[in-house]
Amino acid sequence: MNQQKPIWIKQLPLVAGIGLLLLPLLLYARQHLLRPTRTNLEMTLFQGITYKRQARNTPRPYMLHIVTIDLAASGVGVLVTPGNNQGRDSKLNTRKEIQARTTSEFVREFKLQLAINAGYFFPFREHNPWDFYPRSGEGVNVVGQAIANGSTYSAVQSGVPVLCFNSGNRAQIFDSGQCPKGTIHAVAGSHIVLKRGVVSLSSESRRQDKPYSRVAVAIDRQGQKLWLIVIDGKQPLYSEGVTLAELSKIAQELGAFEAINLDGGGSATLVVANHSGVKVLNAPIHTKLPMRQRPVANHLGFFADF
Q1: What are the φ/ψ torsions at residue 166 (nearest 5 degrees)?
Q2: Using an 8 Å Cβ cutoff, are 164 and 178 in contact?
Q3: Side-chain-facing half-sphere of 189: CA atoms under 13 Å
Q4: What is the rounded CA–CA span in Å between residue 271 and residue 218?
Q5: Of 28, 50, 185, 207, which has the fewest beta carbons less than 10 angstroms from its beta carbon?
Q6: Is the bond preceding 284 in cis, omega lying within 30 degrees of 0?
Q7: pTM here?
């Protein structure tokens, strides 16, 4: 007796195959839905720290995140990711200055209230969502001077500017790439985009200037007020980034005296931690996946009172 299988059973392999093909697309779409909405927002995060989000459309769509920090406020403290002077990368068998972490991992590990990614680093690769370096815990080196808790773990490099903090939380930016004696924390960047209130970009930088995800730190003349500037990029129609020249103008709008550009692109991440837990305030994009954080070398973090 020949029994016919129900039609739905015959079609089950086809349905399963289609489901497997659609799954990555559904996961990718879900990541887009997790991004902050393109609406303006302004709020107090902690004592002496406020946050502003702006959805701008000129000269292209981009999301701007600004954290204003009063470095003299009670409870506000600075921390740069400590170096890994004893670390050794097992794969490369060479000494590395620091172990990679995501910004959220940095915030959790050191019980901070706020942090951004900071300096450029190497080695680095990003081929696809499965093939990239570094992963969390793997060794990397920092570009330019890096200081944490008064200990220098990455040396001065010529032409690499640096942001320095002394024991009194005063912030200064030096194009020499070297912090003064008494510096407690420091991170390096790529360009000083604002100097004495004036846009500071070479003709070569202007020629190569393209919209990109950006992270910058701006300070006032006294070094007592600081702005964290994060601009999302690489996400058409949502946020397509800004040029260095446009970043300079944003720092000018804030009334900053000086500003330094830090590592951007897929590294750009802004994280806050409060009684509700750790939250990403911007839309990072690592391995082309929105809201996926990249493990990076060092970070600039802040303690604060609720």
Answers
A1: -95, -175
A2: no
A3: 27
A4: 18
A5: 207
A6: no
A7: 0.89
